[in-house]
Design goal:
This protein has 418 residues and is α+β, with helices and mostly antiparallel strands. It has 10 helices and 16 strands. One of its GO terms (molecular function) is serine-type endopeptidase inhibitor activity.
Length: 418
């Protein structure tokens, strides 16, 4: 099972699948346009964050929470502040259709099933003294589902408790201490976006097949520590991404195939940093299309899958990363123009993000059998993630990325993250 927990304001994710009432025709295309904006922001955020944390640290990100939070802020921005946000977030000049499509996008993502749970929430915590403009409140609530929650920031402990209780409840108690007193000491307003996802593999890994294995860096050298390597032989979409010089595999959650974990594994000798940079300069539809072709053309072909079991957590201040992405004015007290939100000048002092992910074997009870009695006429390909790789939680109907990260260092795996 894969558990993901993250926070931009805040966000939590775990891994299983939802039933999805498929959107048709123009509606689906419009929803996918929103997903494309999210994806392009996601890939740039992942590449920039990877550059900042360096090669030696694992990374867990919930780009959706960052993107959705900044999208709400963009609705109240003016001038160059708005221009920078809109360009970086992929918001088109005509916002009215985008707002409607965003609302539909959020609705489709959250449709429930017994196998997958995905919960999204957003809130603005503000002092009574800050009179948020009524038109902004209406727009934020109607299209983005944002709750306005009065908060007494002058009583710091009380304010922190209010915010952390909201985050804890929204993330099923996976993130319990999101903000600290120093995060809100000078705050007049705090925006929070949360995501919780939990999903079970369509084809679970057999725990008895998990073994201790060596892990290598991009240059082929053994790294300190080892991994608990899960294994199974199964029918999964698998392809080579020649433009990225990488392998890719898709591991679905639940029975309807709506959501999946996509793993991108650089070819031997290829640096993960280089792969992520190339990926940030192309649409993620390249990956979607390649996996769809593989699913259609090679259905029934078995793949040996080796994937580490891992549990990791990232806590980040994203200000410098967003600055590198071109989002500057909103973080600058001399330049920020958020008069669409407030009747006076304020700025975003910090954008904080916490994310957790756990990937393990759990799934249906009969986990050992999947395809075990079948044989290919030729040897099955092997997808062996025993070196640096990137991973993505995707929603296939909307073609959007909800969670992303990288695995590079077994010694920083958190065995006790909760």
């Amino acid at each position: 099972m894969v558990y993901l927990t993250f926070l931009l304001g805040t966000c939590v994710l775990s891994t299983t699948l939802l039933n999805y009432a498929w959107a048709q025709g123009n509606e689906l295309a419009a929803v996918r346009d929103v997903g494309a904006s999210l994806n392009q922001f996601t890939l740039r955020l992942l590449a920039e964050t990877n550059d900042q944390v360096g090669d030696g640290l694992n990374l867990a990100l919930s780009p959706y929470t960052v993107w959705s939070l900044l999208t709400v802020i963009a609705e109240g921005a003016n001038g160059n502040t708005a221009k920078e946000l809109e360009q970086s977030l992929g918001i088109p000049p005509n916002k009215e259709p985008f707002r409607r499509n965003y609302k539909s996008f959020s609705k489709y993502l959250q449709q429930k099933s017994k196998d997958v749970q995905l919960d999204l929430s957003s809130a603005i915590f503000t002092t009574k003294e800050q009179n948020i403009n009524r038109p902004f409140q209406t727009l934020a609530n109607n299209f983005y589902g944002v709750d306005i929650i009065p908060t007494n920031f002058k009583k710091l402990t009380e304010g922190v408790t209010t915010i952390n209780n909201y985050v804890s409840q929204a993330t099923n108690n996976r993130i319990n201490n999101f903000v600290k007193i120093e995060d809100v000491a000078d705050a007049e307003i705090l925006l929070v976006s949360t995501l919780f996802f939990k999903g079970r593999w369509r084809t679970p890994f057999n725990k008895t097949a998990t073994f201790r294995d060596t892990f290598y860096d991009s240059t082929g050298n053994k790294v300190k520590g080892s991994v608990q390597m899960m294994y199974q032989l199964g029918d999964f979409p698998y392809t080579i991404l020649s433009a990225l010089r990488s392998h890719a595999i898709e591991l679905p959650f639940g029975d309807n195939g709506k959501m999946s974990l996509v793993v991108i594994l650089p070819q031997k000798g290829e640096m993960l940093n280089s792969v992520l940079r190339r990926l940030s300069n192309m649409p993620f539809s390249y990956v979607f299309d390649a996996l769809e072709v593989a699913e259609q053309q090679f259905a029934g072909d078995l793949v040996h899958v080796f994937l580490p079991r891992f549990n990791m957590k990232s806590e980040l201040n994203l200000n410098q990363i967003l600055d590198h992405m071109g989002i500057r004015d909103v973080l600058n007290p001399q330049k920020a123009d958020l008069l669409g939100i407030f009747p006076h000048y304020l700025f975003v002092s910090r954008v904080i993000h916490e994310a957790k992910i756990e990937v393990n074997e759990e799934g249906a009870e009969a986990s050992a059998a999947a395809g075990a009695a079948l044989q290919n006429k030729i040897p099955s390909p092997k997808f062996q993630a025993n070196r640096d790789f990137a991973y993505f939680i995707i929603d296939k109907p909307t073609r959007s990325i909800l969670f992303a990260g990288k695995f590079t260092n077994p010694t920083t795996i958190c065995d006790t993250c909760t």
